[in-house]
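Troubleshooting entry. Yesterday's outputs looked truncated, so today I'm pasting the complete records for two proteins to confirm everything comes through intact. If either block looks cut off, that's the bug. Protein one:
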Amino acid sequence: MTTHLITGGARSGKSRYAEQLALAHDGPVLYVATAERRDDDSFAARIAHHRERRPAAWGLHEAGPGLAAVIAAEGAAGSLLLVDCLGMWLMRFFDADGQFQVDAWQRERAALLDALAATPAAVLLVSNEIGWGVVPLGAETRHFVDELGRLNQDIAALCRRVTLVACGQPLSLKAPA
């Protein structure tokens, strides 16, 4: 198993970097989109931009909260899964009123960590680097920052590679010797 966490700030180039790595993969590539579609023109434009950059040969799976099940089902030996992004996946555990679904999150988070440890596929995971600014004022935003920060740390511990992308430039944080 080869796992690689690619993190960075908003518009840092982390998705583009992950896509470049996926382009170099010899086997099948499955793009695992985690964002929930919304009735929002600017968000639709973001999705279209990501879609335009992907080769037509890549598969697409729009994952819901059950990301671990997708990795378990689709992660065949020789394949590459590009998961974009963990922050959008975490957003699926906040309901319409902004309430965090703790039990569902804890269950799916644990399942994701198990699935990543078990899959024979190569996996590229894109996530937002979080918490380099001031502590957010709202409780929901603080909860999001806390949970994504913890998830990033646990995923980074599992991954063979961790790369921080800033200004489109990758900086290796962890690599095999």
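Protein two, checking that the full record survives here as well:
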Amino acid sequence: MNLSEHHYLVRVEWTGNRGDGTTSYRSYSRDHDISAAGLPLITGSADPTFHGSPERWNPEQLLLAALSQCHMLSYLHMAVKNGVIVTAYEDSAEGTMRLNADGSGEFTSVTLKPRVTITRGTAKHLAQSIHAEAAAACFIGRSVNFPVLHEPVVVVGGTADPLAAPSRAKTTA
């Protein structure tokens, strides 16, 4: 077994056959289930713009969530490695997708906006700077072909640090 390779298995099952299958663009639902052994079911659909259900996760949201999760987990690892004590972390990720004339589309950028709370006595500049290390280590961010920008805010003991201005760092492989 190659320890440098990891394999993942998920199952996606379309649940949107309304009886006539795909006889027309509007004859079927975009609903589907995403599952993996031992994990809770994720109910998915298309974005409502593309006739999907607004009550279900769409692939675009899941891509943003994956990028945000990956950066957070990489950041927390870098925090431990660099002696930065994080007590809270939240992110409000935003993505831009462009639709092309032929009906295809692609993301053109994603901006992560993590808000990290650190303990008093932790080096604020270090807490800010390790976002670049986290971006360079993030498996998902390294796998996409569009820029993943970061606008982090560092909060010390519940008070915003005016010296920690948001920075934009493009994820690099």
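Both blocks look complete. Sanity check on protein two: The radius of gyration is 19 Å.
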